[in-house]
Recover the amino acids of this structure.
């Protein structure tokens, strides 16, 4: 929650911001923060884990002392963990935390083997949620750990993520190369096989 008041034409700007910070699914580590700022500088902040206001500027120290003497204010701020943070977190988490979106997986050739250099395959996963995902490579059903490079999960800026993994390998007759993706949206790993027998224009494979 953000509330703001703009003063004179000289650009004075004061605002308050309420934050609920947590990571545990049962909200046991919930912390309520209430900050008062002036021209982008935090003057004073209430922190529920501290139990009182703390001043960060000369003026803020005086304001914090005044707030801390007001027990009604302190008790109300302390109660905000239960009256404000937890109820809102429960509503928002029910809409986001337990939701999953299956990734769109593509497997394509990034480079053909030419005698002096090995071939490179790229396996990509797009538009998935939540962030945690595992992309691995299989040769005839066995995981390959060497000559594999992968990006970190990259945020698209719209709640979704993407990731890319490259495999350098020397093709062998009769072998089967596969990309395996494990994600919360799948009941079992999604395995996409590479088929080099396809014509060049048909080699990109997409799995949803």
């Amino acid at each position: 929650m953000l509330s703001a008041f703009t003063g004179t034409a000289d650009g004075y700007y004061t605002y308050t911001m309420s934050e609920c910070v947590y990571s545990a699914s049962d909200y046991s580590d919930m912390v309520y923060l209430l900050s008062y700022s002036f021209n982008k500088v935090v003057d004073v902040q209430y922190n529920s884990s501290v139990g009182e206001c703390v001043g960060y500027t000369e003026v803020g120290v005086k304001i914090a002392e005044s707030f801390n003497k007001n027990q009604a204010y302190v008790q109300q701020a302390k109660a905000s963990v239960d009256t404000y943070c937890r109820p809102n977190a429960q509503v928002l988490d029910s809409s986001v935390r337990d939701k999953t979106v299956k990734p769109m997986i593509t497997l394509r050739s990034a480079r053909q083997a030419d005698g002096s250099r090995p071939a490179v395959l790229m396996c990509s996963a797009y538009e998935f949620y939540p962030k945690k995902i595992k992309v691995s490579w299989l040769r005839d059903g066995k995981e390959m750990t060497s000559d594999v490079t992968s990006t970190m999960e990259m945020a698209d800026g719209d709640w979704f993520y993407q990731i890319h993994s490259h495999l350098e390998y020397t093709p062998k007759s009769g072998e089967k190369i596969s990309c395996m993706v494990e994600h919360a949206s799948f009941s079992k790993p999604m395995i996409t096989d590479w088929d080099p027998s396809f014509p060049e224009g048909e080699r990109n494979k997409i799995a949803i």
